[in-house]
Each structure stands twice: as structure tokens, then as C-alpha cells.
Amino acid sequence: MLRFSIEERSDWQQQAEDYGFHFHTMYGEPYWDESAYYRFTLSQIEKDIEDPTEEIHQMCLHVVDKVISNEALLTRFGIPEYYWDYILRSWQRQDPSLYSRLDLAYSGKSPAKLLENNADTPTSVYETGFWQWLWLEQQVDNRKLPQSADQFNSLQEKLIERFYHLHKQHPHWHLHFACCQGSIEDRGTVQYLQDCAHQAGLPTGFTYVEDIGLAESGEYTNLENQPLHWLFKLYPWEFMFQEEFGQSLTEDRCRFIEPPWKSILSNKAILPLLWKEFKGHPNLLPAFFEEDITQANETTLVKKPLFSREGANISIIQNEKAMMNTEGPYGSEGFIYQAYTPLPKFGDQYALIGSWLVNDKAAGMSIREDRQLITQDMSRYLPHIIVE
Amino acid sequence: MYDLLIDGEVMSEHKMKRSKKLRLDLMSKQTAAKVTVTPMALAIAASLAGCSSNEEQAQVVKSVADCVQNTSYTEEQCKVAYENALAESERTAPKYDSVSACESEFGANQCHQSSSGGWFMPFMAGYLVSSALDSFSRDRHYSPVYVYGGSGYNNGYVMTGNGSVVGRPGDRYVNVSRDTLNKPLPTVNRTISRGGFGSQAAAKSNWGGGSRRSSWGG
């Protein structure tokens, strides 16, 4: 794993406009950064990222199966009792999943370590599946990269296959896509997934989360009063469980992607349970619930809220003192502690690997870079290549 | 390393780790500039383009008198079929919050308030009777039809409650799918409230002035 500088494509901003990639720069700061790229060997990708990703996913599913009907654990996960049966039903029905992203600490020299599992609302899917793919193709054409350069990235292909499969399972269902108002990034992400579904032949629609209505029948509706029976939501389950319309979820008039059981998979409380079940696994870090913190031998721990997004409310604690923390609106639902592992540093940049799954298949990789040790929402996205 | 031909596609024997080919032409999107089409017009466009082999002929019956004159039903049977269709219309017709929203699709004076009150729907222009199953049954389903763009009988379309076009005004016989004839449509309900999702995002985006919030994903 090496970091190389490279000349940017002269017209990439124009192309970004043409392709509707409107969030390459946010709040005056670059987000997409092609002034450099990371290089991996095929063996690093296959042995250190791809295989462990699928294995970690299976371990996570194993833990979900333990939690899903265990009241004490569901309580520890901060999930309201009202939704326990609802979540269990979605698991027993095997409601299909679309995708996930595992965040990994990986330096190219030792096994990748799971930091967290973004299984409910993963973003940067467009930048990964399409935009960095296009970058590679064009930089090879420009002779800036060798002809043999490859990329760990079958994400778009696998998403379209997955949508095709879902369409065959439910040939008469329409899939509506939803995200919040006011985020260009989320709107772009959802548009991309809708495009993928469309390419797979699936009939689609879009509605903003805030515009969803509730009908007399208990069905959710779009602004045109059409019932929504199948909804992709780029909106966290733990938010929905707290909101006014959450109550009517349990009537099961609408199926969701990601499905309700992902509220367990994406919860950071899964990290201590993974460690309990698979203690010593090379891709796991020791992790503990707050009440078991005395079991930790590590001098440096990372304190994470159960439901944090984009690096908010995270502290790094050394010898019981916070040496670094990020602010944010999360944490009221409780915290877990995870052994600290440094992210690899290239120059003055820390790099974080995102490893993607479509259903249960490893599907590609993304890299975020930040000058800060805790990767947040303003970190930059860099492309990667595979060269032998 | 050499190329293999599988299913008409050239595949490299060395397995690539990335997508083989992406459809660039399908990727150009100007999200902000998307045209919005009213759903009924959209559904009509879709059903005009569609064509099904699973079709049968049906008679468009406009009234009890039309039924008595042009079907094998008795007057009593015609009344029952009409009442059935009317009840079905009350349940499944497209519904609107205002009379003007309804009239913008179905034409001036073509809408009425639903009998449950509160919202507006087009008048039933008639109902469908299968030509193949011309015998009366009290339990049979009679699909109501409406005239979309209904100012005058020369323009507009005859559609069922879900916006599927079956013919033009004045058509006595139309070809429709078996589902249209036999399957009741889902109940169209009035949306009683909106905005019940999204409050957590709104509350959390106020944190820190909301200036850096870029995504609710992660």
C-alpha cells in the first residue's frame, strides 16, 4: 500500500458537472481529491481486504442472529422495545439487504482491523462505484497509469445485478428512493442508486423523507398520495424509531431497504459482541460495553456512541484521560469502547479504508483521507489502483 | 493471458477486480433540472407504450339504461352492477386534496367530493363488462372507468382508476388485460398527515449551526 502523486485530469470538474457529481467540493473544501492515489498489490486486496470483508460480514450476521430475539441484548443496543417484534419479523422473512460498507484500519503490513460496520446508510457509493472507476479508465487512456492497472471495484456492476435479482423476486413492485432535504450529497447518492435500479429494469420513484405521508389505511404515501410499499431510505433506522411515523412501521405495510434487521448490524454495540464471540480474530479489535470496561487491558481506547455518524462524538482515551475528541449531537443512547489502533499515515495524511459489500459479496474499496486522526465528514476521497 | 468469448462478451481470463463496462450514457444526470410529471399523466404515458398479449375484450357500459339496452342483463342486474362499480369507484378512484387539483387532470365539472368527505375524485364514466363472461353475478367485480382530460368526448382517454388507458371516449368495446377486468385495485387512501419522518435529522442538523452537515449517511 503506497501513496503516489499524479497529475489531475484537466477537465475533471467539467466532467463532474456533466455527470451530476455536484458534491466534489463541499463548503469550499475539496472532497474528491485526485492529486494522489493509493496503490495496492492484488494479493493485498484479495487476502487482506476482500476475503476478510466477507468473513467479517458473516460473523456480524451470526451476532445479529444472537441479538435478534434476546431482550437483554436488544436493550443494550438501545432499540425501543416497541420495535423488537418488527425487527425480528424482518429477519425471519429474510428481508433482502442491498449493501454495506466496513470501515477498516489497514496499512498494507498487518491484518485489516474492523473499526465499524456502516450497514444501514453507507454513503460515498457513487464516488466509489462510478467516479473512481471512470478516473482509472481515463488515466490509463491518458497514459498516466499503466495499461495493467486495475481497481478493486465491481460495486456498480454488483449493485445492478442485485437490483435485477430483487426485481425478479418481486416483478410487480415499485421501489421508491428517499433521502432528506438539504443534502446535495445524499440526493446524489440516492439518484445514483435509483439509476442503478433503473438500469436493472426496476420501476422506481423518489420522495424526500420529510414529504412522506401517512394514509388512513396505515400506508405511507408520496406527495401524489400513491402508497409506498417498498422504500429505499438513506435515513437511519434509529432516527425513524424515534419519530412520529415510527409507530406505524410495525403494521408492515411497507418493506424497506435496508431492512429493519440492519438496525442491529449497523449498531456499534455489535463490536463488543463480535469480540466476545470471536475473541482474538485477526480482523477484530477488542471492544467492550461500558459496564465491562474493567476487562480492558488496553491503555488507549476509543469511546464511540452506539449511533454516531461521520465520526461525531468520538473520543480517544489514554490512561482514562481524553486526549482527543470530536463534537456532535450523539451519545445519549450510550457508548462502547474499542481498543485504539492507529490509522496508517502517509505524509501528513491518515488513510481509512472503506470496504463495500453488495448483499454478502465483497464489491470494492474506497479510501478517505484526513489530517485528523478521527475521520469526519470533511475528509477527502482518494482513488486507488491495483498493480502487480 | 488471452481473451475468451463467453455469452458474446469478451472476458479476460485474468479476472478483473473492477466492473467490466459501465454505461456512461446512462450516467449523465442533472438531478436539479429534472422535469416533474404529474403521476396520472405519467401512468397514462406508460400504459400507452405498453402492450400485453394477456388481453380480452370488454364492453364499456355507461349507465343503467345503456346496460339494459346493450347487454343480456336484466334491469335489476344492471342496477346491481352499477352499484358495485360505484362502490368500487369510491374505494379506488384517484383522489385529490382539492377540486381544482382533480379538475386539472379530468376537466372542469368532472369531479365531485367523495362520499366519505374531505377530498375529490372524478365522476365514474362507466364500467367494464367482460365480453367473454357476459353472465351476471352479484359478486362479480366491475371495474369503473374515468375520462382523463375529459372536456368533451373527442379528446381525452378512458382509463381505469390506476391510470391505465383502455381506450378513447365513445369506444363501445375495448381490449383490456385480464387483471384489469378481474382484479380489484388497491384502496386509495387519503394521506392524513405528513412530516412524520425527518425530525431527528432536523434536530441534529441544528447542532453546531448546521453549517458542516453534509450527509445523513455515514
Q: Name the assembly state.
A: heterodimer
**Order of helices and strands of chain B, N to C?**
EEHEHHHEEEEEEEHEH
Rg of chain A: 21 Å
Number of helices of chain A: 10
Q: Order of strands across the biggest sheet of chain B?
A: 9-8-7-6-3-10
User: Spans of chain B of 5+ residues with little confidence (pLDDT < 50)?
Assistant: 1-13, 30-37, 208-213
| Helix share, percent of chain B | 25-40%
- Total number of β-strand segments of chain A? 23
Number of helices of chain B: 6
Between the first and last Cα atoms of chain A, what is the distance in angstroms? Answer: 11 Å
Structural class determined from secondary elements of chain B: alpha+beta
Gross morphology of chain B: extended
Q: State the distance separating the first and last CA atoms of chain B.
A: 40 Å
Q: Which descriptor suits the 3D outline of chain A?
A: globular
Over the alpha carbons, how many angstroms does the gyration radius of chain B reach? 25 Å
Biggest pleated sheet of chain B: 6 strands, antiparallel
Amount of helix of chain A: 25-40%
Query: Which chains have the largest interface?
Result: A-B, 77 and 48 residues
| Computed structural class of chain A | alpha+beta
Average residue-wise pLDDT of chain A: 94
* Count of the domains of chain A: 2
